[in-house]
Design brief:
single chain, Rossmann fold, 2 domains, 6-stranded parallel sheet, 17% strand, binds guanine
């Protein structure tokens, strides 16, 4: 029977520290960290995510500016807004919630955000920095997952980590972070042969595929630590509920520790966004 990694508590603890740091920055340096959050369109899940991000900012004393743009917004209009935010010295972080409507090229949007204000860590300059081990802005979900793994396991060196999924947002940066910690890293994806056998070798298993209950108990080595990044909405017994990519009940009988959904990686993603926003503000003010 495994222990459940309480991502909510972990996030609350990190946010308490950040809150103290934010008030110190204001008292000592008259610096008020500020993030601009841009939501284009009406995607219901994105609306929930943005609301949660803004709420956390309020709790920590971070200033947040919401820009809500219509479904029919042009790429040109969005790029003009990003340009304005890039040039506003009171704004330290810029986040454009993904996905954006199909008339907008998301790559062009991410490329337009100043790397110093890219609190998502998605700009190619920040991706490149992560690749060569000179981390600047690190993507929030992998960063939060790494923090929980290090808290649970201490030194990760020599452990075999298997990452399921190769997305730019989670899978690839997660693999890079684990490699930096001297893990042996395997990335598996939709074209991988015999995923199950590879997962069975993992000391650390990170699931980021977006498929409900994809990882079964017999894929998991006894004692492994399992991080479930998935957030999938399913209908069960006539009710809608959120589940991860891991069959939580069965896998928790085998793993030594596992993150739940909800209450695992999700809260840590938002806490790390706050962390990146404070770091961006300090960097732009020349304080680090
Ligand atoms: N959509 C889903 N996850 C994310 C995220 O981490 N950042 C942004 N900007 N959009 C997302």
């Amino acid at each position: 029977m495994s222990s459940v990694i309480d991502g909510k508590q972990f996030a609350d603890d990190l946010c308490e520290k950040l809150k103290a740091e934010v008030s110190e920055l204001e008292a000592q340096h008259q610096l008020l960290p500020c993030i601009a959050v841009v939501l284009v369109g009406e995607d219901p899940a994105s609306q929930v995510y943005v609301r949660n991000k803004v709420r956390r900012c309020e709790q920590l004393g971070i200033r947040s500016i919401e820009h809500r743009l219509g479904d029919d917004t042009t790429e040109e209009a969005l790029l003009a807004l990003i340009d304005e935010l890039n040039n506003d010295s009171a704004v330290h972080g810029i986040l454009v919630q993904l996905p954006v409507p199909e008339q907008i090229n998301d790559k062009a949007v991410l490329a337009a955000i100043s790397p110093a204000k890219d609190v998502d860590g998605f700009h190619v300059e920040n991706v490149g920095a992560l690749t060569v081990g000179e981390n600047q802005m690190v993507p929030c979900t992998p960063l939060g997952s790494l923090m929980m793994l290090q808290d649970r396991l201490g030194d990760l060196s020599g452990k075999h980590a298997v990452v399921i999924g190769r997305s730019n947002i989670v899978g690839k940066p997660m693999a890079l972070l684990l490699l930096q910690q001297s893990c042996t890293v395997t990335i598996v994806h939709s074209r991988t042969k015999n995923i199950e056998a590879l997962c069975q070798q993992a000391d650390i298993l990170v699931a980021a595929v977006g498929r409900p209950h994809f990882v079964k108990a017999d894929w998991v080595k006894p004692g492994a630590v399992v991080i479930d990044v998935g957030i999938n909405r399913i209908e069960q017994d006539g009710k809608s509920r959120l589940v991860g990519d891991v069959d939580f009940d069965a896998v928790s009988e085998v793993a030594s520790a596992i993150t739940p959904v909800p209450g695992g990686v999700g809260p840590m993603t938002i806490a790390c966004l706050m962390y990146n926003t404070v770091a961006a503000a300090k960097m732009q003010q020349g304080l680090v």
